[in-house]
Each structure stands twice: as structure tokens, then as C-alpha cells.
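Re: Re: C-alpha cell formats

Sure, here are both.
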Amino acid sequence: MTPSPLPADLRSGILHLGLGAFHRAHQAAFTQDAIAAAGGDWGIEAVSMRNPALAEVLNARGGRYTLIERHPDGPRLQEITVIRRAHALPVNTDAVAARMADPSIHVVTITVTEKGYGAHIGAKRLDRENPCVVQDLANPGAAPQSLVGLLCLGLSKRRAAGLAGLSILSCDNISDNGHLLRALVLELAGETDPDLRDWIARTCTFPCSMVDRITPAAQAETLALANGDPAAIETEPFRQWVIEDAFAGPRPAWEKAGALLVADVRPFEDMKLRLLNGAHSLLAYSGALLGLDMVRDVMADARLAAVIRWHMASAAHSLAPVPGFEIDGYIDDLLARFANPAIAHRCKQIAMDGSQKLPQRLFAPALDLIAKGQSFESCALATAVWLRFVQGTDAQGQPLALDDPLAEGLRRAVADAKGDPSRLVSNVGAILGPVAAALWANAAWQAAVTGYLRTLAQDGVAAVLHAAVDTANRP
């Protein structure tokens, strides 16, 4: 194992919210490499938002854990020590907020997934029916339950301490993530403390970022490779981080570790969300329905792999040019990453939270394809495959778990449809937010999704997927 190069007395300069596997494989690894290359007190204090056990494990180990890179020719292990301390919520809320008022903390980074924002993401506004948001609007500063409430409490403490503003950097797979987060924070602060809102708007920045590194859930083999390290995680060799260069103060030299600092992240994030993440969703729901456990299992079927390539090629027509990237080569690289036999990425892990992910991954590109007069068939097929998954059984009739913030609404939509594909499409479109509402207003879109959903029921998942790519490949 490659030992950590960091000094034992490294101090913290970053507070991170969302102590999951992705943060430990991505931002933490980038930050450790940046410190090794350029120095600076940029240790991380990381907050587990839901799982106190993980924070306890890391603290017991002094923040040390094993990062396993799964190369096709064998694993490579690296010791990560950049996390200097871990905290746990929902306890310790006030103490976590108080860390934002420490003069040594300059950057807050965030990975809480789409559902952690308590927002209507496409509209960039708070979800006023989210229980955590309701609580924080009614009781500002009193043990906040939402991400945005926690940020507002911490920033109020920082303002009271007379310190400069923070750089608050979202690292979640959400288009325009920094602008979304800024809008949510200002919305909550504007209702609970207008003076705080003005201070945040004046002194804090919310850079956008695009992140990419496939990080499967840890398995028994992960622990075995890491000699029993309970905090060990595994990931692919590839990593990418594109960051908007808009910081309120000092920051780590992440560019020394390979990150790109750019004026506009949007072309990069659209490329990743629509090609990688959109294809991942289609792949995951197809695999779950067909009883294929891993991403690599789906990619081992040449015809299913061809469906994934077809979707990427189609979605690419929705993109603006991306500086320095050749799209066909990017697609080839994505397909090779998906097929990596050393990566055990479960389809059902990717299939979580579809209602939160698909607006960015499938619905927004479909809208752009419609506006450009291009075919949206692959997006319609992927949406129909998701709706088939939502119905709760796989192709063999075995039950499928639905892990989604809108699970109850989706189940009601399925029950109300009573097997009618057209009614199901209409029902689900009504609960998915503004991006879906704009897309569902297009009759041709609804007809295409309904048609695919009907043939999935009649002909089966494998037959429909194979037929779709065969049709796409006809001259």
C-alpha cells in the first residue's frame, strides 16, 4: 500500500458535509494529492449526515482509511489521511455549525446527493413540503434538520464572529449545482434573517463543479483487500473534477492534483450528466429488470452495450461544444469504464432516487433534442424502462425495491394507472417537477414513452432493448 505523504500535524481548512464513499474516493483523494504537491493546511473535517457509525469508525482510526483503485490488471491500495476529524448528525448540529466560524476553515464542500438539498431542483427553490425544510423555516437556528438550515446557522455564527465569507462548493451530480445551492441558502436566509441573507450574498461564493469517479459500495472483498479496514472503499482509476474558479478566499491547489479550474462548468457538467449519468440510469434499470447484478454484467452483453452506446450518441446531440473534448472518444472511454471487469458496481445502487436524478439526466436533454429537431427516442426508451422498474417487479416477476424520495407517490401512480401505460405516464409526469412538466407538455414525448412502456409489457425488456438498437442502426 502506498503510504500517505501528509504530515501528522496537518490542520483543517475544509469542512465537508456528506461523509460517504464518493467523497472519500474523490474530493478527499484530490485534496490529499494537492497538499502533497503544493502544501497548505487543507485537512478535512467531514460530517456524516445520517450514519454516526462511520464517523465513529474514522475517528477511532485517526481519520485513516484505505482507498483501493480497481485497475483491470489488479488493485492498487493507497493510505488516505487527509480527513482529520469526523462529526455526526443529527446530533452535534450546533457544534458542526460552529466549525464554520473557525478562522482556519475557508471552504465548505458538499456531497449529500440530490435528495439532500430539500429542493425542487429544476426550479432552484426549496421544497416547502419537505419536513426538514418546514422545520427550519418555522424554527430558524434551532437544531436545523436540512442542509440549507445547517449552512444558514453556520454562516450566521461566522458573521457574528466578524469573519470573511466562505466558499461553499457543491460536489453533487446536479446541473448548475453551485447556483442551485446559492439560491436555496438565500431563500431560507431571506425568510428567517434578511440581514444574514445580505451578508451571504455579499461575502460568500458558491462555485459550481462537475465530479466524476465511479465508486461502488464496499463489499466483503473490499475489507479483505484492505486487511480488515472497516472504512476502506474501492473506486475506478479514472477521476475528474472541474471547478468554477469563483472562490471567496484561499483554497487548496486542486489543479496540482489534476482538477480543472474554469470560468464556466456548464458544458462539462452537461456532458457528464447526459452521457455518463444518463446512460448509467438506462443501464441500471435495464440490468435490474433483467436480473443482471453489476454494470459490468450488462456491458458483457454486446447488444445491451450497443443500446448504451446508442443512447450516448443520441444524447450527445443535445450538447453544446465542450472545449478540449472529442465526444466520440469520450463515449469510447465511458464504455470502457463501464465494462471494467474489476469494478463491482451494482445496478440497484445506481437505480436509487430516480425521480431526483432523471430530470437532469434524461428530461433536460430530451427537451433540448426536441428544440433542435433531433430524435429523443433513446431518452423516451430510458424513461419507459425506469417506469417499468417503478412498477415493482423484474422481467421474471421477482420483486424490486423502490428506494426513492417519491416512492409513495410513484406507487400511488402505478396503482391508479391499473395497468394502463398512458395513464401511468401521465400520472408520474404530474409529480416530477418543472423540468418534467415542460417535457410532458409535448404530446409526442408522452406518446413515445407510452409506446415503449406498452411494448415492454407485451414483448419483454430484452426484446424491446434489442429492437430499439437494431432500429437505430438501420441505414
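Second one below.
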Amino acid sequence: MNARAKKEFLLKPQHARTNHKMRDLVDQAVTALPEVGIRKSAQFLASMRVPLEVAVRTLVYPKRRRAVKPPSYGRQR
């Protein structure tokens, strides 16, 4: 990757979440998952109108949820 392409890549937000309400709802469901189970968590997300694809992905693979980190603009060592 050349320097210009690398700079453009670093300046773009990477997978930034824009829907904070949905993020909070999904966080609640994933947190409650061990106590209430997948069915109740799925019902909660469905009642809050979270899209089916998002609910399935986050409940079936809760540890694979991406953690969004801002790009590092400093020098890498």
C-alpha cells in the first residue's frame, strides 16, 4: 500500500456505529444472555424492532462483535 492510499485509509472512519440506540439495545440483550437465555434475548430485540440479521448475528456470536477503535494517527513502531 503506498503512502497516499494508507493516509486515505487511516482518515476514513472504520466501521463506525451510527445508531447508538440499537447499539445499547444489543448490549443489553448480550449482557442478559447468560441469565435469561437466547430465546428471551431474541424476544427482547424483536420487541425493540432490531433487524433480524443484527439480532441473530449478535446473539449467536456474542464474542465476535466488533470493537470499534479509532484509527491511530501516530507513528507505528
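The longest helix spans residues 20-47. The helical segments are 3-11, 20-47, 52-60.
- S.
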